[in-house]
Amino acid sequence: MISVYFKEDTKVDEILKGLENLVSQIDTVKSFEWGEDKESHEMLRQGFTHAFSMNFENKDGYVAFTSHPLHVEFSAAFTAVIDKIVVLDFPVAAVKSSVAV
């Protein structure tokens, strides 16, 4: 999971479309979710406005994603518009998974 604080004047919609396009083209991404913080107090979020989560079948899938030419190309544009970023890489311990209705 990553949380980002975009630079001022970033065209966030274009970045989001780029991310959605990227993950749809690389099969090793098993799921991709993102959200924008609308409720937290500024003091708590410290400028971080968006969070992104990607899941992979295994470590090999993650390595294939990060070395994929499309990811390498998009990463340059993505990192150029980020003021701050927090990256968390953890195995999921599902206690109660969401169910699509």
From TrEMBL:
SMART domains: Dabb (SM00886). SUPFAM superfamilies: Dimeric alpha+beta barrel. PROSITE patterns: S_R_A_B_BARREL. Transmembrane segments: none annotated. Residues 1-90 form the Stress-response A/B barrel domain. InterPro entries: Dabb, Dimeric_a/b-barrel, HS1/DABB1-like. Homodimer. This is Stress-response A/B barrel domain-containing protein. It comes from Capsella rubella. The lineage of its organism: Eukaryota, Viridiplantae, Streptophyta, Embryophyta, Tracheophyta.
